[in-house]
Amino acid sequence: MNKLFYKILIFIFIFSSANSEINILKIGNPEAKITIKVFSSLTCPHCANFHQNIFENLKTDYIDKDIVKFEHYGFPLNLAAFNAELIVRCHSDNDKSFQLLGEIYDKQKKWAVGSDINIINESLKKIGLNSGLNKKKMDDCLENEDAQQNILNERIQAQKQYKIQSTPTIYINKKKYEGKHEYKIFKKAIEKFL
């Protein structure tokens, strides 16, 4: 499964335009003084930990108060993460996409197991059904070549610009965050920009 994913990624990297427009998942005030960029893979346990322990508090304390704009960048490390990213982006509403993102992270230990991509996809679709998506819509999203291209371009551009070594990679404004994934520590890093 992973070998096929990387072959596809290399093929797209060689033949795609690096200038293709990409649609990042964003939430919060576009004019906020602070922008947090998180590059993550939906099968990454550290990414799930960040989302569960930091994002939810961040949303309440900063995003909902228009102090922070949050950007989620898909950086799938395998085909399961790639397909999960496609399902998250099935929603046209960013708020619903972020709610689904949270559900996918919360249930990561259940769906992101095994090597049969068909079983993984069915597990992802069950989570998607609970968020208001229907099976046909999710099947269409998984087959949508434009959405696939968008996610691959997002990953390629992130690699070129930020030299991602691991996930999650986090930037607060243009500064890479190197601290622990604990909210109190992360909050102090944000407050330096206020």
Protein architecture, described:
With 194 residues, this protein is an alpha+beta fold. It has a single domain, classed as Glutaredoxin (3-Layer(aba) Sandwich), CATH 3.40.30.10. Helices cover 57% and strands 12% of the residues. It is built from 9 helices and 5 strands. Strands 1-3-2-4-5 form a 5-stranded mixed beta sheet, sandwiched between helices. The longest helix is centred in the first third of the chain and has 19 residues, at 45-63. The protein is globular.
Helices and strands in order, then pairings?
Layout: H1 2-15, E1 25-28, E2 34-40, H2 45-63, E3 68-74, H3 79-88, H4 94-106, H5 108-111, H6 117-130, H7 135-143, H8 145-162, E4 169-172, E5 175-176, H9 183-191
Parallel strand pairs: 2-3
Antiparallel strand pairs: 1-3, 2-4, 4-5
Helix pairs in contact: 3-6
Please tell me the overall pLDDT. 90
- Which sequence of strands runs across the widest sheet? 1-3-2-4-5
Structural class: alpha+beta
Major β-sheet profile: 5 strands, mixed
SSE order: HEEHEHHHHHHEEH
Which regions are unreliable across 5 or more consecutive residues at pLDDT < 50?
Answer: 12-21
Please outline what is shown here.
With about 190 residues, the chain is an alpha+beta fold. The chain has a single domain, classed as Glutaredoxin (3-Layer(aba) Sandwich). It has 9 helices and 5 strands.
Q: Which labels suit this protein?
A:
194 residues, alpha+beta, Glutaredoxin, 57% helix
